[in-house]
Amino acid sequence: MAFSNGWTVFNTFADMKGKRMFWGVALLAVLTLIACIATFSVLAGSFQGKVILLNFALNIPFCIFIGYADYKIVSFLHKRQKNTDALSIVTNVIVSNLTIGIVFLTFYLISCSITPYGLNGILQHLLPVMLLNSMIVLIIEAFFYNNLFLANKVRLAVVEKEKTKYQLENLKRQVNPHFLFNCLNVLSALAYQDADKANLFTKKLSSVYRYLLATQEENKVPLPDELDFVNAYIYLEQIRFGETLFINMTCNKEALTKYIVPASVQMLVENALKHNINTRDFPLRIDIHIDKEHITVTNNLQLRSTVSKNGVGLKNLEEQYRIHGKCIKVRKSDSDFTVTLPLL
Fold first, then answer.
1. Which end of the chain, C or N, has fewer beta carbons within 10 A?
2. Dihedral angle computed from the Cα positions of residues 171, 176, 177 and 180, in that order, rounded to the nearest 10 degrees
3. For residue 179, is it left (φ>0), alpha (ψ between -120 and 50) or beta?
4. Of 112, 76, 115, 108, which is closest to residue 92 (Cα–Cα)?
5. What are the DSSP E strand ranges found in 187-321?
6. Cβ atoms within 10 A of the Cβ of 15, count?
7. pTM value?
8. How far is the CA of 182 from the CAs of 105, 179, 188, in angstroms?
9. Would you give per-residue pLDDT tens digits along the chain (344 residues)?
10. 316 Cβ partners below 8 Å, 6+ apart?
């Protein structure tokens, strides 16, 4: 399943759970009303079925109104609360009780004269409403918590699946026979021409594979570690391509405290080499610019005609950044291809 399809399933699931939660809250609100009426009847010493049903019929419209109002209030508050904890639940109960209490008092004062009932009469009618309202809010909170738990399970399943796909793509790049074959050919030639350079080439090659193996389970890595890896990879490719490849990197020091998806910059450099020709007459130029918030990789376009352009690497990279709540930007012109990665 593609990443976008996975999130579509997640969003559809969330919508379905929202509808089920509303009707579940409505049912439990009705049952709570019956329980409250029955409880007060027992406490008053007059437990009569007909009286309970009559009180239920008279109060059900008000109960539905309270349940709907509480659902909207709690939904509104949840959208503005970062976490669902005991403090947020208490806050939601207080806010909903204040709102319903104001509505009830307004309605009570309009429909009834305050003189014959007095303050005690108002409290006798208000307190049961507050009790019923608090119970309904707690039921709604229970539904919200359950839905959040289930939605997080679905989201984690989607994230884990996409992470596995990205790791698989990373693994494929690690054991890429063409890259390894080309590096071994270069190493073989250097062994006869320059022993010191051959030794350095071997160390760079081993550091590239060591990094890939060490980070294949990581969601993000420190930017300095990624840059050391990229520099080692660039060294290997520049030894291989010589004067047909020019790579320039600039970095803002403040960015070195940030994180990045592992092997993301290397993948962009690798894609540029894979999809473009580079000769002495038409060298490939790659510019890597790192500011406080982003890494921008730009290469000149001189596309090969024999390379498949399915964009799988970029799609997987987009998926990884979406897991972190970030988006990458891709821009293509007649002369350049640019990808901007946000720092984490």
1. N
2. -100
3. alpha
4. 76
5. 221-222, 245-251, 259-260, 284-290, 294-300
6. 10
7. 0.56
8. 82, 5, 10
9. 443 444 444 344 445 555 565 566 566 666 666 666 566 555 555 555 555 555 555 566 767 777 778 878 888 887 877 766 777 778 888 888 888 778 777 776 766 554 455 555 666 667 777 777 777 787 777 777 777 777 777 777 776 666 666 665 655 555 466 777 888 888 888 888 888 888 999 999 899 888 888 887 788 899 999 999 999 999 999 998 999 999 999 999 999 999 998 888 988 998 899 889 999 999 999 999 999 999 999 999 998 877 666 666 788 788 788 878 889 999 999 899 999 999 99
10. 165, 166, 169
Burial class (CB within 10 angstroms; exposed 0-12, middle 13-18, buried 19+) of 316: buried
Only one residue has tokens 């352009």, namely 309
DSSP state, 247?
Answer: E
Going from the C-alpha of 309 to that of each of 113, 258, 313, 332, 338, the distances in angstroms are 79, 31, 10, 14, 16
Coil vs helix vs strand at 248: strand
Residue 290 and residue 298: Cα distance in Å, rounded? Answer: 12
Token duo for residue 301 = 């376009």
Please compute, for residue 335, the number of CA atoms within 13 A of its CA located in the half-sphere on the CB side. Answer: 2
Do residues 135 and 12 touch, judged by C-beta distance below 8 A?
no
What Rg value do the Cα atoms of the chain yield, rounded?
Answer: 32
25 burial type by CB count under 10 A (0-12 exposed, 13-18 middle, 19+ buried)? buried
CA–CA distances in Å: residue 284 to residues 11, 236, 278: 43, 15, 5
Residue 245's Cβ-side half-sphere holds a number of Cα atoms within 13 Å equal to 17
